[in-house]
Amino acid sequence: MSRAVAGPEIERLIQLLSKLPGLGPRSARRAALHLIQKKDQLLVPLTQAMEVAVDRVVVCSRCGNVDTSDPCTICSDQRRDPHMLVVVEDVADLWALERAGVLNARYHVLGGTLSPLDGVGPDDLSIDALVERVSADAVTEVILAVNATVEGQTTAHFITDRLAGLPVKVSRLAHGVPVGGELDYLDEGTLSAAIRSRTPF
Ligand code: ZN
After folding, report:
1. CA of residue 166 to ligand 1 center, whole Å
2. Superfamily assignment of 8-56 in CATH?
3. From its phi and psi, is residue 180 left (phi > 0), alpha (psi between -120 and 50) or beta?
4. Could you report the per-residue pLDDT of 138-169, keeping only the tens digit for each?
5. To pair with 155 at 20 to 30 A between CA atoms, which of 37, 76, 117, 174?
6. Is the bond preceding residue 71 a cis peptide, omega within 30 degrees?
């Protein structure tokens, strides 16, 4: 059994930090020590930033993004193409696509993927709201930016069926060789997807 090296307050800080993605107990311990040692430069401003976040963070009622305003910054941005919607599984995917900075569109967060084994059906995701948005906002293109997993692709097919009959183009992200990737290191599924999704040169 490991012995506590600090008082319960610090152990609590370590325990909470260890719940963050990418941080295990060891790195949480290092992060806690770093925060404590940088109290004025880091711990105090971080605590203040977190208090503001607790008070002000809301889920956007249009797209499902998290922000400090509703509608969110992206939905309120008049320079974005209102006729192009990018469908993502969760907010992390939305933020990842925004980091890439190639799309000037708006988003729709599904809140997960269809997964009958886990009891996740269409009513658990914001699919009805998506169909309503496509009609109400005269959306002309829906880009299905879901994960290349069985659940992600099942969800993409389901949404495509739901949108059939509406005057909207439905596309999905290409599957294949990552930028900078070497063919020799790719699995067979990725290679065959890359060959099937080949584009004219
Ligand atoms: Zn929004």
Report:
1. 23
2. RecR Domain 1 (1.10.8.420)
3. left
4. 999 999 999 989 999 999 999 999 999 899 99
5. 76
6. yes
Assigned fold of 79-172: Dna Topoisomerase Vi A Subunit; Chain: A, domain 2 (3.40.1360)
Q: What is the pLDDT of residues 21-76, one digit of tens each?
A: 999 889 999 999 999 999 999 999 999 999 999 999 999 999 999 999 999 999 99
Q: Where are the domains of the chain?
A: 8-56, 79-172
Distance 72 CA to ligand 1 centre (A): 4
> How far is ligand 1, taken at its centre, from the CA of residue 70, in Å?
7
End-to-end CA distance of the chain: 61
